[in-house]
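Exercise: predict the structure of this protein bound to protoporphyrin IX containing FE.
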Amino acid sequence: MNTASLAAATADYTVPQLWRILAKTGYFLGLSGAIGATVTYATTVRPALREGEREDGGVLRGRVAAFLAWSGVALLVAGYFQLAARVARVGKGMPFGDALAPSALWDFLRAPAAKGAWIAQGTVYLVQNLVLLVTAATLMALFAPAARRHLDRIALTALPLALAVTFVAAVPAVRPPDVDTWLNLVLDQAHIVSGTVWLGGLVLLVALAGTRRRLGEGAGLLWADLWRRFGLVAMVCVAVVTVSGLWLSWRHVAAVSQLWTTGYGIALLVKLLLVAGLVAAGAFNQLWLMPRIVRARSADDTASLVHLTLRHFPKVVWGEVVLGVAVLAVLPFIAGSSRAEAGSPKAVFSGSVLGAGVALVAALALSLYATVKASDILARRTVGARPA
Ligand code: HEM
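Solution:
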């Protein structure tokens, strides 16, 4: 395809304005911080610290508290700009600067319900932003030293609140007409939650690994456990983000060739290449680093264990964080639809689509199970191979 025909093919594609790019990327970065950090604390850090009361608990809990407090600030700022972006989008042609005005926001939130709607869209966003305010305030309470004694309670309260921020925004003001639209609502939210848990979790763990100079003798053992636990969380996220992502892709892309012949497709292709990099780094951690960590652990080789868990692993994860932020930066460019650009018919949900989906989920579950098994076998083999 030469440039002229590519230009013709993507003629219907509109590059989003800068304020939309910053608002959407900022919003999902804010959600990654709030959802990702609270879920990762609940599923990974807290259980690891509680196992045999680790010496480094104080240092890590202090860093978690600071991270959560700042993710509250990020969520508040991102939420404000995302709301203003919604106002600017509705107020066709309204300058973004005007949409930032509290009066413009209030008018938008108080707008009456549209014809056929069971609730006003503004009311849905009013509730969403009230939940967002409470979530941010709950997290920011951790700036107060006295509140840090209640880290567990605050983090476990902020977790469902942070999830509610995205779930409430997805409440349809007009009752969805068919299964297809309901499925899209549910899978879109599954996509957002699994993506933000994965990315937010990576960022929290590299922030915690940054405390390595203040950690004690047992740090290698603790971190071997932290990376193992998060590895399982990340695998579930990969599965959910892939299945839901394929559904979202099917809805907007009618043919593989549209990935390089439409503006929407090209943006999605860039995103998929970035995600492939993330998955490859994850596979390297699971199949190369984890077996060596198991070997160092069984050999009581503290120096190698600390090097692998607190120097090598965080380096790889920093790479994943950069790729992850790039994924969120590409998101606003995945706008419109390849089907519309290419004049392809709308996606129609059918039994065969459901069948394909079920087969895909089974294949994905199998491949992830195989990855865990392979990592175990490699670990046992390296331990077995250890010189007597
Ligand atoms: C690190 C992995 C990923 C993250 C963090 C992520 C995150 C997101 C987010 C936050 C959205 C916006 C949803 C919305 O505005 O409602 C989105 C949209 C989308 N994602 Fe992903 N995603 C990831 C991987 C994938 C994968 C693997 C696929 C495909 C297999 C995919 C396909 C899509 C599509 C097609 C959309 C656009 C949907 C639309 O046009 O409404 N994503 N993604």
